[in-house]
Amino acid sequence: MSRRTLVSGPAIVVLFSSVTLASQAKAADLNADPATYRGLLSTLNPGDTLHLAAGTYTDLLPISDLNGNADQPITIAGPESGAPALFTADPGVCCNMVELTRTSYLVLKNLTLDGANDGGSFGVSAKGGSLVHHITIEGCRFQNFGGDQQQNAISTKTPTWGWVIRRNTIVGAGTGMYLGNSDGSYPFIGGLIEFNLIRDTIGYNAQIKWQKPRPAVEGMPTGASTTIVRHNVFIKNDQPSPSGDRPNLLVGGFPDTGAGSSDRYEIYGNLFYHNPREALFQGSGRVALHDNIFVDTPNQAIVVQNHDLPLKVAQIYNNTFYSVGIGIYSGGAQEEATVVGNLIFATTPMSGTFTTNLDNLTDTSANAGTYVTAPSTLLGAMNFYPKVDQCQGTALDLSAFSAHLDYLRDFDGTDKGERLFRGAYAGAGTNPGWQLDAAIKGDTVVTPPGDGATSSDGAAAGDPNVFQGDSAKSDSAQPGDTHTSHTDSAAAFGDASAVPAKLHDTSLVATGCACQAGENGPAWLGLWGLLFAVRRRRA
Questions:
Q1: What is the dihedral of CA 243, 244, 250, 254, to 10 degrees?
Q2: Residue 248 is part of a domain; what is its CATH number?
Q3: Would you say residue 13 lies in a domain?
Q4: Which of 181, 252, 456, 464 could form a disulfide with 186 if both were Cys (CB 3.0 to 4.6 A apart)?
Q5: How far apart are CA 243 and CA 182, in angstroms?
Q6: What is the bridge-based pairing of β-strands 152-157 and 175-179?
Q7: Structural domain of residue 441, as residue ranges?
Q8: DSSP one-letter code for 421
Q9: Is 18 among the domain residues?
Q10: For residue 536, is it within any domain?
């Protein structure tokens, strides 16, 4: 005899209530304007998006105790096109414009911040020793943060990890990005910095500071982490740097022992352009530099040496150099200083101490036209793609770099195939990729699946998305501004007064990014949450 199971009335009510509550747990899309956005900040929960209308926001954007999660970050976004959500600096110079405290898994997107060149207000700042991790800053514009060399567009003064800084335009800051602290405290760990345009800064375009032994901080990675700096455009101009001349990009070393001692930087696919009095790049610690283009300095293009902390490993391969005094200078590394497969047009191709120096092609800048399509220092016209049957040799052995992301992809993101080419491009004839210019790097670069800055502790900083094209918009150059690091100068070579101004001063093209993958997590996880999650609101 079969048995029939009946669902009682109370059980039906419980099931219905669960589904009803789950439906309320859906991520919310909230709309705000300059009059209402401050009141909505404290109501945001994981997965929520606060859409800011176009307009001028004269109040600051203090963000405290907002915590999304890995599958459902909290997003604060301006318009993807048209008039921006424009934040202006506090007239009393009391505060930074966006101050982050006790916040995680937050996305700031498509905002425009104007620092009024007041010398005091930073754009996005994290400080105070509080937990601020897994922050994404994407598609934002930072302008007029150049009141002095100490004024920053983006600054971190607290231990941070899992940050993504992507497709932003920073024009005329004191320092574009200042990540970490001058005394080695407050490490910046496992970050992803990609597809940004940083130009006309007084000091650094960007600096990642050296690191003391790491403090014990809840949730902070303790295993080996990698910070990725890829597909950015770093441009300096000829304005003075009153607090000291600075490279376009400087990265510092890691602790000798313990957490962070095996960390490294992978820096690839970037354009480094113009520096009249300093190197284009300086680094210590563990550094991999590959498939970058370095143009226009009477000094060293690359300096790797002991700085605040020792140089341990420098692996420099498949880069292109043009119109530079010294291509690569190595002060000697504790473990390894390797140069392989570079294309160097310089007065002096290499100087210093190397453990490995193989298969590099060198010549003077005057002879570069024999090898590449249109050697030039003019942005928008320069083209270092190899001519047919040039810049090739025996197959490069790149197996020593197999742990690096994209080590087999060139400046354009093209597979290196048989690895015959010297320099940043793996092809000859017509360049299929992006035209070098004062613009965000174009949509022809494809990021292969699985990329992103990572740590052994599973803190992923980035996503594996393929970057799509963005709608271009006018982006006029702004006066330079300042932010300084503390005593971070490398010795310069050459006479800066002899350097003509070669910057491409017409309006530059910038693009904002509307793409972000993986913000809401797997579909199955979302359905599970609909059945069992109960929405909570903060008081």
A1: -80
A2: 2.160.20
A3: no
A4: 181
A5: 14
A6: parallel
A7: 28-519
A8: B
A9: no
A10: no
Confidence band of 445 (pLDDT split at 50, 70, 90): low
Stretch 304-329: mean pLDDT:
97
- Could you give the count of Cα atoms lying within 13 Å of 263 in the half-sphere of its Cβ? 36
- Asked whether 159 and 179 are in contact (CB, 8 A), the reply is no
CB-based contact 386:421 (threshold 8 Å) = yes
Per-residue burial over 415-436, b = 16 or more CB atoms within 10 Å of its CB, e = otherwise: ebeebebbbbbbbbeebebbeb
Distance CA 398, CA 104 (A): 38
Look at residue 41 and give its three-state secondary structure: helix
CA distances from 450 to 227, 460, 462, 464 (A): 15, 10, 10, 5
User: What is the rounded CA–CA span in Å between residue 94 and residue 423?
Assistant: 48
Share of the chain above pLDDT 90, in %: 72
The tokens describing 377, both together, are 């220092």
Check residue 309 and give its pLDDT. 95
Residue 527 lies in a domain: no
Count of beta carbons in the 10 Å neighbourhood of residue 265: 25
- Number of domains comprising the chain: 1
pLDDT band at 344 (very low <50, low <70, confident <90, very high): very high
pLDDT: which is higher, 519 or 447: 447
